[in-house]
Design a protein that fits this description.
By secondary structure, the chain is of the alpha+beta class. 23% of the residues lie in helices and 53% in strands.
Length: 184
Amino acid sequence: MKKALFAMVLAMVVAASAQALTIGLVPSALTVTPSTIFVIDVVVTGAAAPGVEVIDVVVTYNPALVTGVDAAEGAWMRTGGPLLEFEEVNNVAGYVSYTAARLGPNGSTGSGTAVTLTFHCEGPGLTALAYYVNVSDTNGDIIADGTGVIEIQQGGGQVIPEPMTLALVGVALTALGVVARKRS
């Protein structure tokens, strides 16, 4: 009885580990220079048979600071056969949408870059790219999904001090003047 129970638990652990697919965006935080292009990859890790057949990615952003340029399949998504792809870049509403569906019986397995997203930094500031990723297997079952935010710091530009900072500088200069006057 104990051996049967142990075998059943071991089989469940092996089955669970085979389905341990994870999704992430690389890099998870980024500093970019205004007027430059930057790339973010959607990375899939641990895709087991029957493999990934469909991946949906939606990324939203502040179009005053970042604009979408392109979304394309990564090298990993190309493994397993041809793809049917749908891409939409909308810089007025501030989003990039990408869907890739495998044409054929085999899905992509293992790990790698599923989608490469290209953006342009418009100007200095701090913004976030909010994302949603949904992955389905060859049976049409959702096997993983994820959401998150990538912080984008746009460097450069002129730093304008806040009014409180200017007030503190003024107080410090006044105090220095008072101390200098008392010493003389």
